[in-house]
Amino acid sequence: MGSFHGILGCASLVATVVALALESQAVVALCVAASSTLAIHARSLIHLAPAKSTIAPGIVAPHREAFRRTIYMVLYLNLRALGEAGLARGRPYAVGRFLLWTQFLPRSADPNALIFVVPMFLAVTQDAVSISADLGFLLSTQLGALVLSFAFTLAFRKIISIRAAYVFAAAAVAGRFGRIFFGRMPGLALSAAIALALNLPADSAESKTAAAAAAAAAKDLPELELPPGMERWARQSVAIYGKEKAKKVCLNLHKFRTTWGWPLEISSNTTKLLEPALRSGMHWVLPGRDAKGRKVITYRPENIHKAPVPDLQLMMCYLLERETRDLQTLEAGFTIVVDLEGGAASAILCRRRKLLTIADVRRGTSMFKDSFPCRVRAIYVANLPRALLPLAGLVKSALPAKLRGRVAMSHKPPALFPALLADVPLAMLPAAMGGQDARFDWDAQVDKMLLE
């Protein structure tokens, strides 16, 4: 029975990929037939899954219930795909949507329900009523459901971690939920946050000053064997990570920047081209340092529509490059303050104007993953929607303990976020973020940058 189900799974996966590429009626019908057969057959295998497992403190995953819900999700997506392909219509189509919708009604309010059940229920409700998802979205979601089912099969056989599969599934559900209600922006924000969190470097094993680290780095340069033009990055990487990891980071940086056509070092000529991005308000570098001597950089997604996304990404790299020329900053590192106020409205605008592309997402998730030598000591996420707090907490719980201790999140604004204020006092926060620094003038700082 298991081998037959495996063959069905492979056939469904191939059929879904082909349907996603061609979107023709015949191929969609074949995809629906294969995956519906798979889903119906899977009902006889539910008892083979473990009843439940503990993912994190307070979060228990009821695997058999999730298995059942996934089956109905596949059937719902198939029915909707038939409708979008013009193969289902009228009263039977409406009745079918309603009957499948009833299978997603929440039956509890535990953390797992808030992470999975409620977002799925709201997303299916929105789509069933408004018929908002197109064929490409439905088929890509179907593909994701098949891949996740395979991942959990591997997890149940102890080939991969159940916790890793759970986190991956939670992120996928959040991305689909966000896409239906807000467009691509929530998925990008989640990917960027995870990539940045995973890139938080461990503290250096040796307690040496930045000047001593730079001196030691100079001796190691000949042994790194890097492409031309990487001298600055070699010194900076060795100072932060030591020689062994420095080469990997430098090679990743070189590959990333050459792949996307970015300069290895951002010159003053490039800076002038970035003026709209610099003045967008997406990122600020606050004057002075926080309570631990770190530079503070703000990230405000509500301004993402004010400049092209590639320019905003390049601008962030420029600001980090500029600040890490200072030895104290190189040693002390950065505090990142993410303010999500107005993020939903900006996401809707991004969706309508199609400001965000897959290439932007790929670039954003890889630009700092072992590709830029700097120390990010703390990340504070303010104005996080309450509905996303359980998912955000789950993602945080999956991080190593040292990195987990560097990330703090709150639904409150920056000026009312106690953990943030312990490092970044009100007197340092700009008035635009609820702080007391009414003299903060980012445009004046940009003027100075353009003259450098």
Automatic annotation (TrEMBL):
This is CRAL-TRIO domain-containing protein. InterPro entries: CRAL-TRIO_dom (IPR001251), CRAL-TRIO_dom_sf (IPR036865). It comes from Chrysophaeum taylorii. It comes from the Eukaryota. Pfam families: CRAL_TRIO. Residues 1-19 form the signal peptide. The keyword Signal applies. Residues 274-441 form the CRAL-TRIO domain. The chain crosses the membrane at residues 135-156. Gene3D superfamilies: Alpha-tocopherol transfer, CRAL-TRIO lipid binding domain. GO terms for cellular component: membrane. Keywords: Membrane, Signal, Transmembrane, Transmembrane helix. The lineage of its organism: Eukaryota, Sar, Stramenopiles, Ochrophyta, Pelagophyceae. GO terms for molecular function: phosphatidylinositol bisphosphate binding.
